[in-house]
Write a structure and sequence with these properties.
Elements: H1 5-8, E1 16-21, E2 30-34, E3 44-50, H2 51-59, H3 75-85, E4 97-104, H4 108-111, E5 116-124, H5 126-134, E6 139-145, H6 149-156, H7 160-166, E7 168-172
Organism: Paraburkholderia denitrificans
Pfam families: PFIN
Protein name: Plasmid fertility inhibition factor family protein
C-alpha cells in the first residue's frame, strides 16, 4: 500500500518524517509531515489519531476558533493549503500540535458527573487536519504533551493495526 520513503522522494529533512495517504485527493496521493518538537528537551509525543474522532473533540472547543468545513472555505484558502501540503514542496509541513482535556457531557449523566467528553484545542495545524480529513485521510499523526498523550490515545487514538495500515513512519530522510 505504501511506497518506501526513498521512492516518495520527499525533501531532505533532519526530523522524523510521517507519510499520510490521501485516497480521495486528486492533486496528490499522500502528504509528508514532520514533528513540531525535534529537540531532545521538550517532552512531547506523537500519537496516531482517528481523524474523525479528533475533529469531533475539536468541534467541542469553545474558544471560538473552530473552523468551518473545507467545502465552506473560499477557493484561495483551499488552494493555499493544498499547495502548502504538496509533498513535492521543499518545505515539509509540521504535524498538528494539540492539547486535550475533558469536560462534563451534556445531559443528566454529565450533570451528575458520570459522563465526560474529550475537548481538543489546536495550538497549530487545524487547517491541515480539516483539509486532510476532507481529502480522505482517516488517521493522522499529531504531537501532544507527554502528560496528555494517554488521554488523547484513549479518546482519539487508533488501534495498532490501523496505525500500520494508515500512517507510515518514514524515519529521518
Amino acid at each position: 500500500m505504501f511506497a518506501s520513503a526513498s521512492r516518495l522522494s520527499p525533501p531532505s529533512v533532519s526530523a522524523s518524517l510521517w507519510v499520510v495517504p490521501l485516497p480521495d485527493h486528486h492533486a496528490y496521493d499522500h502528504v509528508c509531515l514532520q514533528r513540531v518538537f525535534t529537540a531532545d528537551g521538550p517532552r512531547h509525543e506523537v500519537v496516531i489519531v482517528d481523524l474523525y474522532r479528533l475533529l469531533q473533540c475539536a468541534d467541542r472547543d469553545d474558544t471560538d476558533y473552530v473552523l468551518r468545513p473545507v467545502g465552506d472555505w473560499h477557493t484561495g484558502k483551499v488552494r493555499g493549503i493544498r499547495e502548502f501540503l504538496d509533498p513535492h514542496n521543499e518545505r515539509v509541513p509540521q504535524m498538528p500540535y494539540v492539547t486535550i482535556s475533558t469536560r462534563r457531557a451534556t445531559g443528566l449523566a454529565g450533570w451528575l458527573r458520570l459522563a465526560h467528553v474529550g475537548v481538543v484545542a489546536f495550538h497549530n495545524g487545524q487547517h491541515r487536519a480539516r483539509y486532510l480529513a476532507w481529502a480522505g485521510a482517516e488517521c493522522l499523526p499529531v504531537e501532544v504533551d507527554e502528560r496528555e498523550a494517554p488521554l488523547l490515545r484513549a479518546l482519539c487514538g487508533v488501534s495498532d493495526a490501523a496505525e500500520a495500515v494508515t500512517v507510515q513512519y518514514a524515519g529521518g530522510v
